[in-house]
Design goal:
The complex is a heterodimer of chains A (about 270) and B (about 300). Chain A is of the alpha/beta class and about 270 residues long. Chain A has helices at about 45-55, 75-85, 100-105, 115-120, 125-145, 160-170, 190-205, 215-220, 240-245, 245-255; strands at about 5-20, 20-30, 35-40, 60-65, 70, 85, 175-180, 210-215, 225-230, 235-240. In chain A, the strands form 2 sheets. A 6-stranded mixed sheet of chain A has the order 6-7-8-3-9-10, with helices on both faces. Chain A has a 4-stranded antiparallel sheet with strand order 2-1-4-5, with helices on one face. In chain A, strand 4 and strand 5 form a beta hairpin. The two termini of chain A are about 35 Å apart. With about 300 residues, chain B is mostly helical. Chain B has a single domain (about 1-130, about 140-305), classed as Orthogonal Bundle (ABC transporter involved in vitamin B12 uptake, BtuC), CATH 1.10.3470. Chain B has helices spanning about 1-35, 40-60, 65-95, 100-125, 150-170, 170-180, 185-190, 195-220, 225-240, 245-270, 280-295, 305-309; strands at about 130, 140, 145, 220-225. In chain B, strand 2 (about 140) and strand 3 form a beta hairpin. In chain B, helix 6 packs across helix 8 (about 195-220). Chain B starts with a helix and ends with a helix. The chains are: A alpha/beta (about 270), B mainly alpha (about 300). Chains A and B meet through helix 2, helix 3, helix 4 and helix 5 of A and helix 6, helix 7 and helix 8 of B.
Chain lengths: ~270, ~300
């Protein structure tokens, strides 16, 4: 099953420790091209840790990491960005003092080339590239629906617009896999609904989406397949309906087993 | 007569301030991205001046046309300084990227001492005359005097600073620099190779330092292995005055510091009834530094220092 041709991301036996604490152990999952894959689990289950490993912010301690047919264990984020993985953050991390357009233009960095010599020489190739970057950035702002704010500083956008801008910036890297860390956090029902539409639009444009969510309802209506993490382990995987009726999942969410052990404090971002 | 002195001090202040601004930009760019004070930056200015001197002497001896000789020696100084800036970052700062803040500060001072002594070994302890093959004509301006060199310094400084702002705000490299300064983790995820951006920052700052080194030498006609120390400290003061980490702040701080020093030195004799002379000029820069640190630690245009601290 894991050797299916359309597998985009395959993790096997992933382990990550912080000191003596196992944030993740033996987590395996595979994501197919063109699906929306949901990753759910209670707070501290290790979702964000897994995300940080997939995007290169953390290095895995055990296991293998295959993306689009190549192995990427222990690579820096910019290498993974180049390979085609992009992400957004749970706590939005835009370049606050740059305009919306510039934020997206930074996202084009990985697919463009001009360096210090191009900047100094300002030659034809550099100027053409610069124009292409700007054009693509405008298109992406249009795609996520905030084109009218292109010259607004990122910090002056509303919360929902910042979320969209972060997605546009991630899309600018031309990802094969777009990883969204709780994109609906802090949004009202209307905003969440339009975000869902945006995610479907992204999938239909050919980008595979990996979605961390806290909110089970959102995941159920949107994802093609879902995995559930609890205490750093994968306890279920499958289509949403299956997962929803899985007793282990219900126990994890409703607290079926009472335990005295403290939950692992998986890093929720780098702070 | 009094008006003449005033205008003259303003002119001198603007000229000196242009040089401070160019050097201050090097401090502020590195601080903006790494949160590090590159105390070796003043020595880069000195090396730029020394290299320009050597190349200029050789070219003039070979009877190269004066303007061409100036241009080539300036380019040579910039090239050597860019390589030096790159090397300093690789050797002295990159291995300490995740060390406590005090560690790179100490290596910065170490690099500064090493460069000074290397320069002393290569170029000697003596003062060198800087041979500027230009007709340094004097012009009357509002009752005061301005030289060709001074006019050139101000014009070149303005052009170089405009070019820098253009690079930072209108190019892929500049965007990457600003992105890294704001949020390194997010920048990496956009595919920005932070090490390359940091190297480029050091190289750009060092190129500005080379230009500044050439200017100081041309203005005073003297080059010495110790010249970078005081210049570096003053430019650092200018960067703090403007708000370290802020490019426009460095430009404003440089200009203001030049004016404060120049006016202070021009009038201190009158104000103190002849008790202090203009050799107390340096006092003003550091009084400004102390005053800024006490009353407005984030500088005139700075706001990001508090966020970073």
């Amino acid at each position: 099953m894991t050797t299916v041709a359309d597998t985009l991301l395959e993790l096997r036996g992933i382990g990550k420790r912080f000191g003596g604490l196992a944030a993740l152990s033996e987590v395996s999952l595979h994501i197919r091209s063109g699906e929306i894959y949901g990753l759910i689990g209670p707070n501290g289950a290790g979702k964000t840790t897994l995300f940080n490993i997939i995007t290169g912010l953390y290095q895995l301690d055990e296991g293998t990491f295959q993306f689009a047919g190549s192995s990427y264990a222990r690579c820096k984020p910019h290498v993974l960005a180049h390979a085609g993985i992009a992400r957004t953050f749970q706590n939005i991390r835009l370049f606050a003092n740059m305009t919306a357009l510039e934020n997206v233009m930074v996202g084009r960095h990985v697919r463009t080339h001009a360096g210090i010599w191009g900047a100094l020489a300002c030659n034809r190739a550099t100027r053409d590239e610069e124009r292409a970057i700007e054009k693509r950035a405008h298109e992406l702002l249009h795609f996520v629906g905030i084109q009218r704010h292109s010259n607004t500083l990122a910090k002056n956008l509303s919360y929902g617009e910042q979320r969209r801008l972060e997605i546009a910036r991630a899309l600018a890297t031309e990802p094969k896999l777009l990883a969204l860390d709780e994109p609906a956090a802090g949004m009202n029902a209307t905003e969440t609904e339009s975000l869902k539409e945006l995610m479907k639009k992204i999938r239909d444009s050919g980008v595979t989406v990996l979605l961390i969510e806290h909110d089970v309802k959102l995941i159920m209506g949107l994802c093609d397949r879902v995995a559930v993490l609890d205490y750093g382990k994968k306890i279920a995987e499958g289509v949403p309906e299956e997962v929803r009726s899985n007793p282990a999942v219900i126990a994890a969410y409703l607290g079926g087993e009472v335990t005295e052990a403290p939950r692992p404090q998986a890093g929720e971002g780098l702070g | 007569m009094i008006v003449d002195i005033f205008v003259q001090q303003i002119i001198n202040g603007i000229v000196q301030g242009s040089v401070y601004a160019l050097v201050a930009l090097g401090y502020t760019m590195v601080y903006g991205i790494l949160g590090l004070i590159n105390f070796a930056h003043g020595e880069v200015v000195m090396v730029g001046a020394m290299v320009a001197l050597t190349v200029l002497q050789a070219l003039l001896a070979a009877a190269v046309a004066p303007l061409l000789a100036i241009l080539l020696s300036l380019l040579a100084a910039m090239a050597v300084c860019m390589a030096l800036g790159y090397g300093i970052e690789r050797v002295a700062y990159r291995p300490l990227r995740n060390a406590p803040r005090l560690a790179p500060l100490i290596t910065a001072i170490g690099v500064s001492i090493v460069l000074q002594n290397l320069a002393m070994m290569i170029w000697g302890r003596e003062y060198h005359a800087f041979p500027l093959p230009l007709d340094n004509a004097l012009h009357a301006l509002g009752g005061a005097i301005i030289t060709n060199v001074q006019i050139a310094i101000v014009l070149v400084a303005v052009a170089v600073m405009a070019l820098l702002l253009l690079i930072v705000h209108r190019t892929r490299l500049g965007r990457a620099m600003r992105a890294v300064a704001e949020n390194p983790a997010a920048a990496m995820l956009m595919g920005v190779d932070i090490n390359r951006v940091i190297s480029a920052t050091f190289m750009l700052g060092s190129a500005l330092a080379a230009v500044a080194g050439f200017m100081v030498s041309a203005n005073y006609g003297i080059v010495h292995y110790y010249m970078g120390f005081m210049l570096g400290l003053k430019a650092f003061t200018a960067a703090v005055l403007g708000g370290i980490g802020n490019l426009r702040g460095a430009m404003l701080g440089g200009l203001l510091l030049g004016l404060i020093e120049s006016l202070g030195a021009g009038y201190i004799g009158d104000l103190s009834g002849g008790f202090f002379g203009s050799n107390y000029q340096d006092v003003f820069a550091f009084m400004v530094l102390i005053a800024v640190l006490i009353f407005r630690p984030s500088g005139l245009l700075g706001e990001r220092v508090a966020e970073r601290a």
